[in-house]
Amino acid sequence: MSVQEYLEKHLLSRKIEEAVNAAVRAKAPDPVLFIAGHMRRAAPAVITRVRARQILDGHGAPAVEVELHTNKAVHRASAAGAGAPEGAAADSAGDSGRRKILARSVADAVRVINDKVSEALVGMDPQQQAQIDQAIMDLDKARHKAELGANAMLAVSIAACKAGAAEKEVPLYKHIADLVGKSATTLPVPAITVINGGKHAGNGLPIQEIMILPVGAKNFEEAMKMGSETYHHLKDIILEKYGAESCNIGDHGGFAPNISSISEGLDLVIAAVERAGYNGRIKLAIDVAATDFCFGKKYDLEFKSTKKSDQNFKTADDMIEIYSRLCSEYPLVSIEQPFDKDDWEHSKKLTTLELCQVAGDDLLMSDPERIKRAVNEYTCNALVLKVNQVGTVTEAIEVVKQAKDAHWGVMVSHRSGDTEDSFVADLAVGAAAGQIKAGAPCRGECLTKYNQLLRIEEELGSEGVYVGENWRTASAS
């Protein structure tokens, strides 16, 4: 092929002339850079390959990282594992065995991504998120994404979402807002972990987390300031009361003092809030994770104790009385997973009392069918969205819409042992979730989400609105 034939085939002369004319019209201070950018935008982006690898999450456990290549750039995303492997083999394997099982599942996912997924996505436009996600879903027809794994699917989907945002030359949260069909202007209230218990800490506290919500802040930056200051005052109080050995932290970065009473934990947090000077401006929330200590139809509040008194074996109705008392005695505005994952009856009883937000985690599993049932039966009034339970960005957006249509609260959540990917921060803004749960102001995989939200708020400037007291009813225009 001659030079002239090559130029004519690719219309280079015309394209270069258009770029030069555009630079002249724009009076570009650096015409070479302007022309280069113009030419780059003139060529549509297409996916050229997808590569995956095994990395380590915040607990040092195997996780999936994906690099999605286009003809213009490389976009990276990662997703935490979907949790501990289930089944009799996993139950009898111990921590080391479970880690090996998880490593094998991640290795299998990496192979599938590098082969089947990459082949399916090559040539696709990264801006077409729904089409990309459908192509991924078509490769795994199993229930709960059992073949490929929801976390592996999510890593690919997030990488594609980042590529789509880059092609549109907009921030990731704005691209997500476009996919939702809204504008991205609202900053969520952070549900900041300050005390860990349950299976996420070695103390006697049965519930998994005590969190603070800085609803009285004027913006997200102040909310994180309030949260961080309270967290550090809490450390001082624990140090004074229990000694240095009680200042260790749990899985989400919350402190793990040697306490066994929910009230004792809430009292510590209230004292920290008051010492920080934020009394009345910070509300409290708890993640009970009650499935972890439900045995039959009763709840063992001493399930971690080696010296059981048999006085803390509670019925579901007993637990409702406990929650009612806590809501009356403390500024407790949200209770997550208050009962076993299959106890729809008592979750409904608590919700209908309208004492606080009742957020479904294990009860819903971010599953559209379970959400639909919960909406119809009024079993809870908020969704805890864990995107790697869903599988793709498109599906995550759909369940957020489902929850918001029911006038529920939406709490976008990280996972235990999450990776340093900050996608959920952009998702919380893009989907106007109103709430984000990303752990304590302590661990790197937690802080990366909060720091991203600080950047987003700065970028939004006067357009950004911190939802504050409207944390349950946040919406976007």
Keywords:
477 residues, three-stranded antiparallel β-sheet, globular, Enolase
Please characterize this protein's 3D structure.
The chain has helices at residues 3-9, 12-26, 31-42, 88-91, 94-121, 129-138, 150-168, 172-180, 220-242, 262-276, 316-329, 344-352, 368-377, 387-390, 393-405, 423-430, 444-460; strands at 47-56, 62-70, 74-79, 186-187, 189-196, 209-213, 283-287, 294-295, 298-300, 313-315, 332-336, 357-360, 382-385, 409-413, 434-439, 465-466. It is of the alpha/beta class. It is globular. It contains 17 helices and 16 strands. An 8-stranded mixed beta barrel has the order 5-6-7-11-12-13-14-15, surrounded by 7 helices. A 3-stranded antiparallel sheet has the order 1-2-3, with helices on one face.
Rg calculated over all Cα atoms: 24 Å
Helix content: 40-55%
Number of helices: 17
Write down how many β-strands occur, each being a DSSP E stretch of 2 or more residues: 16
Structural class: alpha/beta
Strand content: 15-25%
Shape assignment: globular
Mean pLDDT: 89
Strand order of the largest sheet: 5-6-7-11-12-13-14-15
The biggest beta sheet, please? Answer: 8 strands, mixed, barrel
Q: Could you give the distance between the termini?
A: 54 Å
Keywords: Glycolysis, Lyase, Magnesium, Metal-binding
Enzyme class: lyase
Pathway: Carbohydrate degradation; glycolysis; pyruvate from D-glyceraldehyde 3-phosphate: step 4/5
GO molecular function: phosphopyruvate hydratase activity
Short description:
One of its GO terms (molecular function) is phosphopyruvate hydratase activity. It contains 17 helices and 16 strands.
